[in-house]
Amino acid sequence: MPTVGVKRDLLFKALGKTYTDDEFQKFCFEFGLELDEVTTEKQMITKEQGLVEAAKDASEEIIYRIDIPANRYDLLCLEGLVMGLQVFMGKIKFPRFTKVGPVGKGVAPQKLIVTKATAQIRPFAVAAVLRDITFTKDSYDSFIDLQDKLHQNICRKRTLVAIGTHDLDKLQGPFTFDAKSPKDIRFVPLNQEKAMTGEELMEFYSTHAQLKTYLPIIRDSPVYPVIYDANGVVLSLPPIINGDHSKITLQTKNVFIECTATDLTKARIVLDTLVCMFSTHCAKQFTVEYCEVVSASGETKQYPDLAFRKETISVAETNAYIGLNESAEKMAYLLNRLLPTKQTAPDTLEVEVPPTRHDILHACDIYEDVAIGYGYNRIPKTLPAKMHIAKQYPLNKLTEQLREQIAQAGFTEGLTFTLCSRDDIATKMNAQIDQIPAVHIANPKTLEFQVVRTTLIPGLLKTLAANRKMPLPLKLFEVSDVVLADGKSEVGAKNERRVCAINCNKTAGFEVVHGLLDRVMQLLEVPWDRQTGYYLQACDDPAYFPGRCASVLYKGAAIGRIGVLHPTVLQAFELTTPCSVVEFNMEYFV
């Protein structure tokens, strides 16, 4: 969840009202936000760096740090936050964002031409112009900060979308978005004095605190994306850095915004959000000059979209989902605090979704806004229509009971990884991996986590190996799930709850694990009987010493193994003392 820092006095001035910290916290909660912290720039720097000296020149102006839902891109800056809160308070109606053509008769719109070469690295681009904008120091900082917030959020650290903003008066259209070899790209990067090629730029910024994170996105590509104007002046090298020639200052009046992307939908959302928020500072508020983008296929489209779409919701369904009993008129009033709404039928509301609310994908998102408009704290608490008395899941209940009893029998509980290597369940256990019904990880990050365990024994043996210096005997147990591939299962695999115990001593101590098995069966009230209870039957298993292994049978069905582990198994797990083990499926006793 992103956090936005806004200056308290600036926020209250824009809202036209002053709050105490507690009052503003309650107000944020009503709007669906959370006031995370009240701090100052000085306190923030001291907290981050741990040095009071580093913050001695920092401002002590109060800053509100507000937690914003990850999908509310329109609230990531002061402008969007103020707009949303003012609509919620009923001070203003929702703004009508419109795109307009260039001013002046016969003046052509700015054009961005995308070449076919960009398909190799970053195939999409959108653009727009903010005309007659007026920046102050605070609004300029907010403009830069919103770009950074969008880059970290929906842009996924510039991998999906990269934003470039430029002083249009320093450039000459039309603009071209191309992909060139790094050595053929040469320009002066932002806030630098020396021109660099693409290769030199990568080397120069490899130690930069912020920009080094983005270099791997294009570094290994044979071509780098680049945008330049009609005179060949480089605007930017997305997603790394803009050119110094077109940098924005407080005196900038016309801003050219370009977004290059690997995901066109995300680029459109980012552009809509950015221009809607800062069109408030234009001479003609809430208007944006469109640009024509010519795709690699030759198709021309206008951006930004700034599309208002209409959705209809049922009043009855909305009441049922939230647990209210409001009339259509009252619900329309509540929803107008967040979205433009009107009643079109006795049970139907028509909601207009603005270009700033790309988070609204379904009627349920509108229901959420109705609940916010009504007030979460005011929603009446009701019992479910159908009563269900909760109880502990039987398998988990039995698991907890067995854990306690096995611990009282002198065994120490272990909790091992569910994932393990193929060798752990196969080679080290004297088995072949292709004969084991294991679930394999498609793209394992490490050799230690290649498959989901099919037995609890390897994990406990690793635990023993890590505690070899502890005095003997070592008696460990675990009651956990294993996962087995199962073609009959809906998901192709099934979980199986097992009990596993190991005794490690100077002698194998088979009688110790046998005694534990008898104790568990006694607790489960399972008799020693071939027909109605449990018994042992000799068997051969390559993981166990020959003649020292038996199957545990319950009502004639094999549910586990008990025996003395084979010396080669112990050697594979770097153990030198003999071990006896019992492992069985406990689901039969639920």
TrEMBL record:
This protein's UniProt keywords: Aminoacyl-tRNA synthetase, ATP-binding, Cytoplasm, Ligase, Magnesium, Metal-binding, Nucleotide-binding, Protein biosynthesis
A GO cellular-component term linked to this record: phenylalanine-tRNA ligase complex
Catalytic activities: tRNA(Phe) + L-phenylalanine + ATP = L-phenylalanyl-tRNA(Phe) + AMP + diphosphate + H(+)
Database matches in CDD domains: PheRS_beta_core
Keyword Nucleotidyltransferase: no
Coiled coil: none
GO biological process, one term: phenylalanyl-tRNA aminoacylation
Broadest EC class assigned to this enzyme: ligase
Subunit annotation: Tetramer of two alpha and two beta subunits.
Family membership noted in the UniProt record: Belongs to the phenylalanyl-tRNA synthetase beta subunit family. Type 2 subfamily.
Protein name per the record: Phenylalanine--tRNA ligase beta subunit
